[in-house]
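Fold in tokens:
===
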Amino acid sequence: MTFRTPRPHLPSEPGEPAAPGSLITVENGTDILMRRSLEDYAPSAQVNVLEAAQALEDFRLGGGPGALARAEENADRAITAFQIRTGERDVAAWQVAVTYIVELLATRYSAERLSAFDPAPPVPSLFTPVSPMRLEKISYDAHTGILTAARLLERSRREVDEMDVARSQHSIHEAARLLQDELPGLSLPLWVLICRFCAEAHAHTVRGRATTDPAVTS
């Protein structure tokens, strides 16, 4: 599935905007984890996605339509904050990214449940599993790349393999490239920041689950 919008110009020189009108700056070097983070650009959006994730889990625990409404309202606030603070405003791309971020964050609350995605919100909720705007449907390879990067980041924290950090950064960049091919309304440097945010967030979840099941990180 490809959303054909004009592909932004990507500058080759560090220090320049990632795309016309973008507030994301192209940075020197290949170390993705040392660059300015998505949270640095949009700290209020980070709060919004965390609150949306908690509300979404509340809905799945029986909180009813009110909890789902809070999840969607916070997701909408996050989309707006990301648009303003990054200068990149493609609505479809941000809906995909924010929905995915919220779902990843919500999984840290659902470890004890057999199905993390039940009950499913009805259409037209952002969080309905049948929506075509799900990142894992737009690029399943990008989705698996993000999860792989998360596992590698968590392993690197325990110093299992000194190459895990390099492998995780490669997975993040490749996931970003795949997503930018499908959703070119956001620049590649911004997609890298989004994929890094997702990988780091999920690594935190993997770390928490490993305290009860060490096989999770193997």
Summary: The longest helix spans residues 43-86.
